[in-house]
Amino acid sequence: MDAHKLVTPTTSSEWESFHRIRREVLFEARGQFGVYDSQHTDDRAPNNHPKLLVQNGEHLGVVRIDIEGRVAALRRVAIRADVQRRGHGRALLNLAQRFAQDAGCTQLVSSVASEAVPFYQSFGFGVAQERALGSSGRDSVFMTKRLGGGSAGRYTPGVAAET
Ligand SMILES: CC(C)(COP(=O)(O)OP(=O)(O)OC[C@H]1O[C@@H](n2cnc3c(N)ncnc32)[C@H](O)[C@@H]1OP(=O)(O)O)[C@@H](O)C(=O)NCCC(=O)NCCS
């Protein structure tokens, strides 16, 4: 079993997987059809980094890491429905955290769907501030994790991210 990798989509197959996973998991599975915009300008902003989680050539999940100063926001985190609850989400957060730390960030933040709160908590995130509605119009919870402290998933330079 190869290690997980977080790659920037470049090929048409990678971009197709990136948008399909987002559309199916974050929109259609929540009853929102014909809403997802694969041409959104936020996905091309210079400090926003779309990433695809890959293992053994399989496209498993997605995240966009938006960096502003020392804060990295994890946006639109999703694992393909048929491979959830097998540790891929945790691997994705580990690699996203490592990417953020390599970029000099000291904090991760995310607006989290209420059903995903335990997943983020299991990775060392805490609830920072309740928000009535997230950007997707669904109930969401604003969560943060300070980096470099010793909480779960901490990145140690020179050691591959735990997958
Ligand atoms: C949330 C999501 C990204 C988690 O990815 P995953 O690959 O399924 O999660 P993992 O297998 O890595 O889970 C790691 C740990 O997180 C916790 N966890 C994950 N999903 C959970 C859930 N639905 N309820 C409670 N705990 C959960 C558990 O502690 C789990 O460990 P365990 O399986 O040994 O109990 C994925 O399930 C998903 O894409 N869900 C739908 C979209 C979504 O909610 N995205 C987040 C938007 S903010």
By CATH, the topology is Aminopeptidase
Structural class: alpha+beta
Overall number of domains: 1
DSSP helical segment count = 3
Order of helix and strand elements from N to C terminus: EHEEEHEHEE
Strand count: 7
Q: Could you tell me which ligands this complex binds, including any ions or cofactors?
A: coenzyme A
Average predicted local confidence, pLDDT: 89
Shape: globular
CATH architectural designation: 3-Layer(aba) Sandwich
Terminal-residue CA separation: 11 Å
What share of the residues lie within helices?
10-25%
Q: What is the alpha-carbon Rg in Å?
A: 15 Å
Strand content: 25-35%
Please state the oligomeric state of the protein chains shown.
Answer: single chain
Describe what this molecule looks like in 3D.
- This protein is of the alpha+beta class and 163 residues long.
- It has a single domain, classed as Gcn5-related N-acetyltransferase (GNAT) (Aminopeptidase, 3-Layer(aba) Sandwich).
- 22% of the residues lie in helices and 31% in strands.
- It has helices at residues 12-27, 88-102, 117-121; strands at residues 5-7, 48-55, 58-68, 71-79, 107-113, 126-131, 140-146.
- The protein has a 7-stranded mixed sheet with strand order 1-2-3-4-5-7-6.
- Mean pLDDT is 89; it is low at 150-163.
- Residues 25-26, 77-79, 84-90, 112-113, 115-116, 118-119, 122 line the site of coenzyme A.
Give the structure's gist in a few sentences.
By secondary structure, the chain is of the alpha+beta class. The chain has three helices and seven strands. The longest helix is centred in the first third of the chain and has 16 residues.
